[in-house]
Design goal:
6-stranded parallel β-sheet, globular, about 10% strand, alpha/beta, 6 domains, Rossmann fold
Amino acid sequence: MTEQTAEPLQEFLARFGLEAFRPGQRKVIQTVLDEADCLCVMPTGGGKSLCYQLPAIAREGVTLVISPLIALMKDQVDQLQQHGISASYINSTLEPAEQYERLDRMAAGEYDLMYVVPERFRSSRFLSAVRRANLKLLAVDEAHCVSQWGHDFRPDYLRIGRFRQLVGNPPTIALTATATDQVRRDIVESLDLKDPQVFITGFDRPNLFYEVQTLSSVRAKDRALIDFLSQQPGSGIIYSSARKRCEEIVEWIRTRTDRTVGMYHAGMMSEERKEAQEAFMRGDVELMVATNAFGMGIDKRDVRFVLHYNMPGSLEAYYQEAGRAGRDGDPSHCLLLFSLSDRYIQEFFINSAYPEREMIAKVYQFLLDCPEDPIELTQQEIKDQLRLEISPSGIGACELLLEQSGVLERLEPRQNMAMVRLQSELPTLVDLLPKNAKTQRQALRAFEAIVGERRGEWVYVLPDDAQRLTGLDTSAFRRALTQLKATNWFEYIPPFRGRATKMLRRDLSFEQLEIDWEEHEKRREAEFEKLEQVIRFARGRVCRQRTILQYFGEEGASNCGHCDNCAAQGHGPDSTTEGNGPGEQPPQPGMVEHPAVLEAVRKVLSGVARAKGRYGKGLIVQMLCGSQSQKMTRFGLHKLSTHGILSHLRQTDVEDLMEALITVACLFQEETVRFRPTLNLTDLGRRVMIGKEDVEIASELSGELRKKLGWRPMPPLPAKQPAPEITPPEPEPEPPTEEEPESYSADDFDSPPETLFDEEPPPEYQTEYDEPEPFEEADFEPPEVSEPPREFQRVELDSSVEPPQPRRRSPADLDSPRQTLENTPNWTWTIRLFEKGFTREEIALIRHLPPEEILEHCETAQDAGNLLDLRWFFTASELSQLKRIAKRLISTRQEFSSEFFPPDFEAGLLRLFFNHPTVGGKRD
């Protein structure tokens, strides 16, 4: 096709009510009109839809649009029809008869555009209709869903490449708002695009103000949320990673503001979700609190802010969700409330999406042992029976891998059979129904034909087949079934609502299965790396927008000049400085590091070396800054020569310095106990520490911190500068092996009491000392991307009645057999999550258990002698109130009883309080 002139394209543009093209649109449209394959990466709100809609009306034939978004289909079709454009859609919201009619009309050439979900490709009837149609263009929207390296992989998208072949490889345009270089390659390969032109129109959203607030607790986030809403008018979306948290946020907003608020998550009924979405689109509610189930394809242009209550699992997801703000081009706010403890929810999602080999083996063996065919058990039921620490979706991930290996098939819900039984020997039961019950009589005739001579027996039937035989629509068929079941001679058991599992082979052991474990682990590690990217984005001090652009491959990106980091450091637009004050010359590659900075670096490295890999970053920071806390004395850290060596700096400064040293590979974190990363030197860090090598680190630090350290630009020197005199670490006195027991009260702690871990590391972690030291719970720090060895994934809480005390292991301890993960008490996982800062409701959500059972875990742990932090369960004012009552009861020698306490406290919570050692010990 020859190139369209500007005038005809302008005429077509007018049909959409538009006057001008947005940046990049014209080139993409011309490529589509030239019938060449192309990949279009265009930011949210950049006008991707026009790139296939305009060509669809510019020439004869139908454009088939593949989208995962049922809600978006109707909205786009309605808008197109308002402009006089013939468009339609086919999805599960339509009755079968309506679907077939639309397919026939498409084949007859009555539509310019037809929207479908990729699940349609399973239907032979759909394929036949497409082959009969004059298919001129295939448009794959949300194309990143085809990539297993993307943040929203959907297996049904993998069918598109084969579908293209079956319909003659029509010209294809793939569209997405978020795609890294790896995902772009995956899209091209999976869709089998032929020499596609790739258009990347830029990820820059200059009207968005990116901001991150680092907060340490749920309560701090709640306060920040209300403060933000009090200053930020207009429509907004608030994202949370958990359904339960969504409900709590909605209630919090309603009780503390006069803003109208709705809610959307996958646990709601489809009608509820639809109603909530439409209310938000109409403007009936200002705020939408949602999980990531909400927003894809939502074209509300006046969203003034997007707030992430929890961090998402990847920068792609963050960019896409935050990008739903400001589509009208007006200034809009993107706020992330960042807490490192949020990472554990995302890690739980990753572990569920990419289960460990042992877990997959257990699921496989369980399915082999099930005699049923097919196996009609939900993922939740399988999880409960196996008692696995994994989400139900994790069971689905196990089944998917097993399905790909060829040993089983997961059936679609529509393939599940219902059962019907007619309990009568009458020739026909129709005459038992009133003559005016026409739909019931119609349905009963169909079931009598299906059952035939097998009266009194259970007969399997596909509900879709039965409905087609009745000639009724879905709602009438369901009403008739309900009325028939009210009789005493018609019995009906609906089909299994989940995806049943059919075992195709039972003769293979798990070791014989063809599963690419290397690829599985590679994808798992890639997801953890994406999570690390989000954490680096949140903690970074450079331009937020520049970080995002560089992540998506725009290396020449400059500072936006208006994000929180740019505003704090005085950057203007188009600058490329990192962390410099106004007018300050930034560090440049090739500059020699200033001796003052190197001195601080070597002091930090020396402190880490003297900690011998036993402690987390938080304790080492306190030690370097000269903290006089109980922890320093308890672990003997106050005796180290590096104690207080950086006392002129704030702890946050030293922590930032450590983060920079992790970034430049002088330090690394290692999980010797799950979720308890300790800080260690790398080989490079050791060489830098003893002066054998220098490292350039100033560019990783903020301008303020560089100033504190005495940094100033230095030109490259021909000769290596001598290292500052930092004495390499000498043997330090070991921390004391025994201490006098201390009396603890919850009020004595600035943070929840630590549980000390006496886990014996394997030999490779014992190279620097003879006997393992107790591990202090590190601050909420990210573990390494790779999973720790299996034997580290368990925890033993001290079982003595006394508060936990550090101790050395005896030789008998070291020689005793290690418990397996399966023998670890169930309650230990609950306690570990409390220690990480999760609330009881969040833990119940993570573990898929009722809150009451979580409370039972806590009582069991306390009965075993473990010191729990009462602040996990009570606010400061509640604790104060309870302690006043307890003190009065003790002074009058009265027994503790719930009758003396306010009635709004749960009985289980009061038991935890009564039996806490700091309150007075166990009470009858």
